[in-house]
Design goal:
Layout: E1 2-7, H1 11-23, E2 28-34, E3 38-40, E4 59-61, H2 62-68, E5 72-75, E6 78-82, E7 87-90, E8 95-97, E9 100-103, E10 108-109, H3 128-138, E11 142-148, H4 154-170, E12 176-182, H5 186-191, H6 193-205, E13 208-212, E14 216-220, E15 223-226, E16 230-233, E17 236-240, E18 243-244, H7 247-250, E19 261-262, E20 275-276, E21 282-283, H8 293-312, E22 329-330, E23 339-342, E24 345-349, H9 353-369
Parallel strand pairs: 1-2, 1-9, 2-5, 9-20, 11-12, 11-17, 12-13, 19-21
Antiparallel strand pairs: 3-4, 6-7, 7-8, 10-18, 14-15, 15-16, 22-23, 23-24
Helix pairs in contact: 1-8
């Protein structure tokens, strides 16, 4: 019996665990560790501030799902990975030994590069999205600035677009100034030229002020400071897009300088053949693989298949990092306009696409609440 330990139960960790159990022939003892007892469907966080969703609507209780499948769940935090001795130490004082380790610890928003970041909310992280939801609900006027930058700029524009819709529905939009600051034309890179032009025109029509090519460099109470020392009065300042490795990864001796873990094409660590790293925690060096949901899920399935191949024999799968951008689907919903793009090229723009995004949410939550993993051909980016 081989012990397989999975650190983290986000998109990559959940998929890995479910596929390991589905392929298991009775020769695996599977354990999952996560400091949260719930997995949140993060692409739908954009709908919390405008009250389209409550947190429980987009959450999956991890323990009941995994335990029903005979997978051990530890609601705990991994604090030390001893790769030489195949052991993981937990905050509770417990230690888990493993034959195979899956590190699916994800990422966190990067904040240290912005001076005065204590004045900024990072709504792709908890608890900041909940704090933003509470603040927006209490405001009856003021200025809100969202800065988008880095690897995942899309959600920032989605947050602001839906905040605009919410304020209009409350009849108080005329009492607000909404601002979007965009680093180095990230929307253009992310959505493609056609969609970028349509989105920026739509935002301008809605009275959202655009600061294109002006990244957020500092913040102080009531003011967002953009590139070129442009000061924008802001009662609420949000930043979305730049990512960094969580603390656990940054402390590993086999992590790269940025904290992410270099992997081979089969998603095994370059340093340890019995450690697999699917999802946002992995690094391909100069190959800038997008850190998004459907790629994390695809890699989770590949990691599970390869661990199964290691144990039972069989051909291993590889992840083609060179084609990651080509195969990348994104589906940002900005309130009045929704975009479908692939490989950073616009495929379609239209409000009806919002139903596709909502359908993917419902399908993911239904299947995974019942412990059913997705097949690779089903995977579409929903962030």
């Amino acid at each position: 019996m081989k012990n397989v330990v999975v650190l983290g139960c986000g998109f990559a960790g959940m998929e890995t665990a479910l596929w390991l159990r589905r392929m298991d022939a009775g020769d695996m003892n599977i354990s999952v560790i996560d400091k949260s007892d719930s997995m949140v469907y993060t692409p739908s966080l954009i709908w919390l501030p405008p009250r389209r969703r409550e947190l429980e609507d987009i959450s999956i209780k991890i323990g009941p799902v995994l335990n029903k499948l005979g997978i051990n769940f530890y609601h705990d935090e991994a604090v030390v990975v001893d790769a030489e001795n195949n052991a993981v130490s937990l905050a509770s004082g417990n230690e888990l030994k493993y034959d195979y380790l899956v590190i699916a610890a994800g990422w966190r928003s990067k904040s240290g590069h912005i001076k005065g970041n204590e004045n900024i909310l990072f709504p792709c992280d908890f608890p900041d999205v909940l704090k933003l939801t509470r603040i927006i609900g209490k405001m009856d006027g003021g200025s809100i600035t969202v800065a988008i930058e880095g690897e995942r700029p899309g959600p920032g524009a989605e947050y602001l677009g839906w905040i605009d819709v919410y304020l209009r529905e409350k009849g108080i939009r005329d009492k607000f100034e909404l601002n979007l600051a965009e680093e180095k034309h990230r929307l253009l890179i992310h959505l493609g030229r056609e969609a970028c032009d349509l989105v920026t025109a739509n935002f301008e029509q809605r009275g959202i002020h655009l600061y294109l090519g002006k990244n957020l460099i500092a913040a102080r109470p009531g003011v967002a400071i953009l590139k070129g020392d442009v000061e924008v009065p802001s009662d609420v300042i949000c930043a979305v897009g730049k990512l960094e490795a969580p603390e656990l990864l940054q402390g590993l001796e086999f992590s790269a300088k940025d904290g992410f873990i270099p992997v081979n094409d089969d998603l095994s660590s370059e340093a340890y053949a019995n450690i697999y790293v699917p999802g946002d925690a992995c690094s391909y060096g100069r190959k800038n693989v997008p850190k998004v949901a459907h790629i994390a899920m695809e890699q989770g399935q590949i990691a599970a298949r390869n661990i199964h191949a290691d144990i039972s024999g069989g051909e291993k799968k590889t992840f083609d990092a060179g084609r990651a951008f080509e195969n990348l689907y994104i589906l940002p919903d900005l309130g009045e306009i929704t975009v479908l793009a692939r490989g950073y090229k616009t495929i379609r723009v239209g409000r009806s696409l919002s139903a596709l995004k909502e359908g993917l949410e419902k399908y993911y939550l239904f299947t995974h609440r019942h412990g059913i993993p997705w097949h690779l051909e089903q995977l579409v980016e929903i962030a």
